[in-house]
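Sanity check record (used in CI):
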Amino acid sequence: MKNKKCGTGNWKIKIYTLFSVFVFTSSLSLYSETKKENQVLDWDNGRKQFVHKNVSIEELNLKSKTNYILDHFSIHSGLEETPMPMSQLEGNLKYLTLGYQLQKIEARWKTITLNSGSKDKITEFYPRVVVRVNAPYAYSPTEYIDSKVSLKNTALTIPPSEFNGNWQSELWFAPKWDIPVLSTFAFERIIDTAACPDAIYHEYTHLITGKYLGNNAIGRSLAEGISDYYAASFLDHPVLYTHKTCEAVKRQLLVSTFRLDREIGIYDSSIESDFKKDFAFIPTLLWSYRQIVGTDLADVTIFQAIEKTNAGDRFFPEFINTLSTSLYKELKKRNGEQVATDMVQKVEDSLWIPHGVYSNFSRKKIVFSYFPKTSVIVPNSDEKSSEFCGIKNELEFYWKDVKLEEPTLRFYWNCNQVKIPLVIQIEQSNPINYLLQSNLRFINGKLKFASQSAEKPNPKLSLEDQTLYLQMYQYVKENYFYRKTMEKEVRLYFDSTTDTNRIENIRMEFAYLGNSKKRFRYSFSPFNGGSY
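Expected output for Peptidase MA family protein:
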């Protein structure tokens, strides 16, 4: 009987023990559910994608025990004035990734500036940059609609604005949106770029470029191209804004991949005024530059070019020229003059020129290097103008002012003591057409009045000279210009010997001005065979 009772007691102990173990393990499970893991997205260079990585709050190097504040950033929710409270950070992949990646891109830029020899502490912002997560909109479907842009933007760099005597920049990251009712995987168009490290890199770079290119450069082709370039360079990966660089994009079926390793065409100057025409040209060309000169040299020299670029400068020719100069100086300092010269020439011949851009190192290969460097006066070959001109009847061409940056030839028709200003605007939209090539025989221009109010003579002229001026104006209008456009086609021909890269004579001909072959043709001697 005793043994039976003892057996019963052991059975109860076993049941109690098993129950205790079950309760303990269940409580652990419940605790693990409430205890959230802190993770960020970090780049796996081998897999070429961002993966989840466990971090501790301490690794973020926060500057506050109560709010989300970093060295040079304060992170806010929406338009809240106070930075996000710490209680919202735990287990939030997006918020943690944002702070983690902001510090990584900040450290990378600090290294670049040190390697470039810059003395500017451009990664230090005082007061801190305000970063807004869950902003009401960056570009939302209701606030921004542009038929030219298939990919709507959900991140935005706000240029600095003054507040209480300080200049403050802001980065905005808007949440995703989808089409009402049709909220299925195929229609989820936009994701919150606060969780996209490549987008974070892009927006941070705007803070750097804005200091040199000017606040108004944000949104223009040069600043946008540079931001995309550095985002790709920091990843060492030429593909951006995909599910591998931002996992939330994997359900974004209506957004195409943005690649910097594709073949691109020839530079078109219109992208300077409307970057929406071609998002890829500038960053792709800079990526190709990186492949030729190497990562470190490309990142450093592109930044050096940014430092020396003035607000309002264009990608071509100003930025390209500054970049080639930076490359030459940096390589000369590191490896000597010959290495620098060879590398610059390699970049010019294999990259810049084939894509329609070039620097001062290739100026001898463009037609402007052959243009006369002085003013040239020639007799006016229009016999009829002699009827109301006195002794002086000549055209004075200001060739010395014609250059790549301003391809306009100014000249005066001097009739007696009266001058009427005219211009010939050379109209090659593609700069590669200025290069001396075997098929280059001429370039076109349009003859126009230099003044928009050319019909009004200078009131300081005598009444007699004002009458002469009006006669000259009417004669040019009726005999030189097409009636509808008020302009005339002019062609500059380049006569060369068997050596197609050497011009022997420059001829200028006005189109369709009578039957006489001698009229309206002018010849000019080139400048020293095209060398400086």
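The mean pLDDT is 80. If this sentence no longer matches the regenerated tokens, the check is flagged for review.
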